[in-house]
Amino acid sequence: MSRICKKKPAVCTDEPLSNSGICQKIALMRNILSTAYGPTGRLKQIHNNVGGHVLTTSTSTALLKRVDMSEPLLKLISTSVQHHTARYSDCGLFMGIFMLRLIENTQKYNLRTVAAAKSYKRLVEECNMYLKGDSCGCKVTVDFSSCDSLVALAHSMITSKPACMLNSRETQHISSLIAQAFLYSIPLNSPGVSCFGSTVTIGIEGQSVSDSSVFPGLLVDVPEMLQPADLKRLGSGPFKVVLFNVSLSGDISEVGDVTLEIHTGVDPELDLLQQLLKLGEHVVKDKVNLFACQKVVHPVLQHYLREHGVVVIERLGLALMEPFIQITVPAEAYGLVRGFCFHSCGSRELLQLLPSKDSAISTVVLCHRNETMLEELKMTCQRAEHVLRLTLREPYALLGGGCTETLLATHITHMNQSTATTTAAALGVSHSEFLMAVEAFCSSLHAVALSLEHDGQDCLIDLTYAHRWVPDIYSQTSAKQTCGCGLVEDRSDLEKTPLNTACHTFSPVFLENTDNQPRILDSFSAKLNALNVAVEMAKFVLDVKYIVKDIN
Ligand SMILES: [Zn+2]
Q: What's any one GO cellular component for it (predicted)?
C-alpha cells in the first residue's frame, strides 16, 4: 500500500527584489555575463557532476543552455535571452548585461516601479527612433557591392568569441569564409519568391584552422571502396541520382512494433533481399549513376550496384536530406547532379557533389586543433552567417566596440535634459523621478560598454563624438589610436573623460568625411531587438510582487 504524504503548502516570496539572496544571485548572473563579454572576455568552463563533457565558452547561448537556474526570476531572464539568440544569433550578452543592470540601477535609485516602467518605455522608444532615423551616428549602411562590411561584421562576431582561439590571420580567413558561404546561400536568377539556400558545416578535428574551406554543393564522406578510378570511369556529368529516405537494410526488425504472420517455408529476410535486388536491377536498367540512402543499404544490394558501376552512398542522415534534394535537378523519377570531385582534408576523404543548378547550397569545412575549440568555432560561424542574412532585411550595422552604447546614452541624456519637465508631466511621473530614470537607463548602457574591458584599464568617452576609448598604453607602433569601433582617430584636442562619471551633457557630433572604416560592427537587427526585449523584461521583473513556488 502506498503511503499517503501530506501536501506541503506553497512557498511564497514577497517582494522578491527586496530579498538580499535573490539580489545577490542577480548580481552574480550579471557578473558571469559581463566577464564573458567582448574579445577579451573571460572563458567559462561548465562541468557536470558525473564527469561528462566539459564545455569551455563565452557565448551566452552555450552558457545559459547548460546552466540550470534555481531562482524563478533568473530562469525567466535566462529564457528570454535564449529566445532572443535563437532568433537573432547575436547580442545575447548585451541583452543580459543591460537588462540586469537596468533592474539593479532601478533598485539602487529607489525608483518607483511604475515611474521606472513609464520612463523606460519612453526612453526605449526614443532609442528606436534615433537608431532607425537618418541622423543616427552609430549606424552604417551595409554595402552589398563590396564584401568589406560583410567581412567586418563576421570578423567582429568571431573576435568577440575568444574561446574560438584564433590568431589574427585565422580570424581573417574564417571571416572571409563566412562571407563567402553567405554569398553562396543567396539564390541567383530565380524568378518569383526566393528562398535562402543552406550551408552545411563539417567539422574536422586536429587540423590547422587555415585548412578550413568552403565549397559549392554538398560534401559527404567518400563511400567505402570508392576509388578515383571509379569516378573516372563514369565520365563527365550530369549524373542520374536516386535518393531514398527509408532503410534499405532488409532487416525485418525495422518493420516496427507489429506482429507478422509468416507462412511455413517462407524466409522473410530472403524475400526482402529479393525485393531489394529487384529495385537494384531497375536502377541499373535506368542507368542511374549515384544511389543514395538516408539510412543503411543491404551489403548484397551495395555489392550488386557497385558491380554495375553505380556509386553508393548510405547513412546520409536526416540533416543532409533537404540539401541533397536541393542540389539535384529533377529528371523524371530521378535527380541530376553536375559532377563529383574528391577532396582530402586531414584524415577525412570527402566527395563533393556539384549542384546541377543554382541551388544555393554550400558546405563549409571547418578545421581546428581540438574538439572544444572546434565546437565553439562551428557555433560562432553558423551564428555569424545568420547575422549576415539579417542584413538583407535591414541593410545596416551598428558601431561595435562599445561606441554605440556611449553614443546612444549621450544622445538620450542630452535630448531629455531640456524636455524633462514636459516629458515627466506627460508621463505622470515627477521631474526628479524621470531624471533618475534617464540616469539609470544611460548608466546601464555605459555599464555594457564598460564590460568590454577586463584588464583593469580605464574606459573613456570623448566629449565630441561620444565614442568609447581605451588608452593604448602598451602600443609600440606609431599608428594613430582609434576609438573602440575604429571610426574616430585620436587627436590632441579631443577631450575625454572616464565613462560613468559626471560630465556636462552634449549632443554627439555627426562624424562626416572620414576615410576611416569602422573595424568592429554589430548586427543592427539583433541589437535593436535585444535593447527592446531587455527593457521589456526589466520592466516585467521589476513588477513581480510575489513568487509562489509549489514545493511538492
Ligand atoms: Zn567608435
A: kinociliary basal body
